[in-house]
Structures are given as structure tokens and as C-alpha cells.
Design brief:
Elements: H1 3-10, E1 21-24, E2 29-31, E3 45-48, H2 51-56, E4 60-61, H3 78-89, H4 97-104, H5 108-119, H6 123-141, H7 146-152, H8 158-169, H9 173-179
Parallel strand pairs: 2-4
Antiparallel strand pairs: 1-2, 1-3
Helix pairs in contact: 3-6, 4-5, 6-9, 7-8
This protein binds zinc ion (ZN).
Residues 31, 35, 37, 62, 64-65 line the site of zinc ion (ZN).
Length: 180
């Protein structure tokens, strides 16, 4: 399972509905990423790229999120998909709206407009969320130093990272780590 898949499942992120499905080996049920059911243990989760693959592996569709209902799959525009892909694969880079736009060969204004309209969140806000989600996860599941985590989510300066993290979660990284 890729990191963004697990993050999408944890956040019940409906933007990934239709892009992949996840099965839970203990129940043999598969769901859309957005399913509001209880979060399974990570080691019990398998990712399927299609419902057929899940069915073939012996999983049944969840009655709550109905992953076998094709009507929910809404194609997103290419540019939005590409933006998300860049953000997810380049979290550690010093990405900005301008740099995103450059990679997509469009103007920052245009990217901002299209992305925000379709996702109800600006590209930079989306980037921040992706960074902070990954940082939170690393704080909870690894022993990495805060400065290393900061770098892995695009902050060369650990103090800047801590400030951003605090602003986003209302807690310092160390506090967040020890609290849970
Ligand atoms: Zn479900």
C-alpha cells in the first residue's frame, strides 16, 4: 500500500473514490476510500485498483459505501489529477503554486481557479494538508527526529515546520507525538 492510499483511507477522502478500493482481510469486505466505517488495522488492508480485482480476490462489497455502484465515479479533469500526483510524489520538494503551475505548463492563476473549483480547496491548501497528514503519521509511527520529518515534508528548517504544524493542528509536533 502506498502512503497516500493509507492517508486517503484514514481521512475517508472521497476524492480517491473510484481510483482504488481497499479490502479488509479480517472481514473480506471491500470499501471505497471514503467509507465511514471503522478504520481497520493497516496490516489487514489490501489495495485493489478495480472492484473486479477485489471481487476476484474473494472480497464482498461493503453495504455501507457500496463500492460496486459505478455511479459515484466522477472523472476529474486531467489537470487536477496531475496536480494531486505531483503534490503526493513531491511533498519533500519546496513546492509552491508557481512551481506546480510550471510543471503543468499553465499559469498559477489558472491552476488555482480550476483546482479550487473542482476540489473546493486551493492547491496550496491541499499541499499543506498532504504535508501535515504525512508529518502526523510519521510522528505517530516512526522514531524519526522532528527535523527529519520536517525535511521529508518539504521544510528545510525545523522551526518553520513546527510553526506550520502548530498552526495547522494547534499542537507542537512533540506534543502531538506524545499525546496519542
Ligand atoms: Zn464501506
Amino acid at each position: 500500500m502506498k502512503e497516500f492510499e493509507w492517508i486517503a483511507i484514514r481521512n475517508n477522502d472521497n476524492r480517491f473514490d473510484g481510483q482504488f478500493f481497499y479490502g479488509v482481510s479480517t472481514t473480506l469486505i471491500f470499501c471505497r476510500p471514503s467509507c465511514p466505517s471503522k478504520l481497520p488495522l493497516r496490516q489487514h488492508v489490501s489495495i485493489f485498483l478495480s472492484q473486479c480485482a477485489a471481487l476476484e480476490a474473494g472480497y464482498r462489497p461493503c453495504k455501507r459505501c457500496c463500492p460496486d455502484d459505478v455511479a459515484f465515479v466522477q472523472p476529474r479533469s486531467q489537470i487536477v489529477n496531475q496536480t494531486i500526483e505531483i503534490i503526493e510524489t513531491q511533498l519533500a520538494e519546496p513546492l509552491t503554486l508557481k512551481k506546480l503551475a510550471e510543471q503543468l505548463f499553465v499559469s498559477p492563476t489558472y491552476l488555482q481557479k480550476v483546482f479550487s473549483k473542482e476540489m473546493n480547496v486551493s492547491p496550496t491548501r491541499y499541499l499543506m494538508k498532504a504535508r501535515m497528514d504525512l508529518a502526523k503519521q510519521q510522528l505517530l509511527t516512526t522514531d524519526l527526529q522532528v527535523s527529519d520529518i520536517a525535511q521529508s515534508v518539504g521544510y528545510l528548517n525545523a522551526a518553520h515546520f513546527s510553526t506550520a504544524f502548530h498552526k495547522y493542528t494547534n499542537q507542537s509536533p512533540t506534543h502531538y507525538r506524545t499525546k496519542v
